[in-house]
Each structure stands twice: as C-alpha cells, then as structure tokens.
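Deliverable D5.2: sample structural annotation.
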Amino acid sequence: MASYRQLVKRGYVIVALAAAIYVVQQFSSSTLDGTARNEAAIAAGSAAQSNTVEAAFLNRQSDLFLEVDATVARILSDDTQPPRHQRFIVELDSGHTLLVAHNIDLADRIDNIEVGAPVRLFGEYEWNDKGGVLHWTHHDPEGLKDGGWIDYDGVRYR
C-alpha cells in the first residue's frame, strides 16, 4: 500500500504533466512570436529545465559558453559585413530554437550543411527574445579564452 508521501508525490507529477499539456495546447499556434514558442517548448520538453540553453533563455542570461546537440532547422544567408558569419537556425529536442552565427573569417565555412542534419556546437550563448544566439564557435585568435567549435558530418570546424 502506498504511503501518504508517495500519493502526494504522484499527485504533483500528475499536476505537472497536466500543466505542461495545457501550456503546449495554449502555445501551439504558429502565429506566436519566438519567445512564446520557445517558452512553450521548454515547459513541454524540459520539466526540470535540464537543458542549460533553455535555462539561460528563461533567465535572460548571456555570456555563457554552452555545448548543444541539435538539428539544423533552417539555413539563412551569410552575413557578409566583416566579420562575416555563416548563419543557421538549430532546434533542440525540446523544440527550442537558436540562431548560430559562425565566424567564417576565423573558421572554415560549413559548405555541405543541410536542414535536418544533426549538429553539435560549443560556443557563447547570448540571450534574445527569439531563443538566443550561439556565436564564438571558432578558435580564439588571441588565445585568451577557450574557443568554440561545430561538429558536423564528422568534421570539427574551429
């Protein structure tokens, strides 16, 4: 027979799941802005906020070096103003999206990148209301801090 504490814990789990389902239903419209869409994805996919990108987004934190496993969701045009950046959107398992700005003046461009492909990144996270930006995905030319990288299709880009 279940103890009172076990019953209370089960009740909390059921309430948390019901709340997550409610949030997803409320925020599932495609007309939502990036903030609402990412907040809904976080509530549904990460009850304990185990993903540091999601926690940084909710806490509006920046200047954090983070490692991310994601899927390429969209490829954008390059930013051609110096310093030049290759830009693409990645999506985490939770549905949270993130802009990647990869400096192609300091690191090789990923010419064969494709939508739907898995990617692992390490770089500096900067908060914005659309989910955030991951940049500094390259070596530090001055050697003052750890550089970032992108692992894609068996190659590490730094």
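Annotation notes: Strands lie at 64-75, 85-91, 97-103, 118-126, 133-135, 149-152, 155-157. The radius of gyration is 18 Å.
The annotation will be released with the project's public dataset once the embargo ends.
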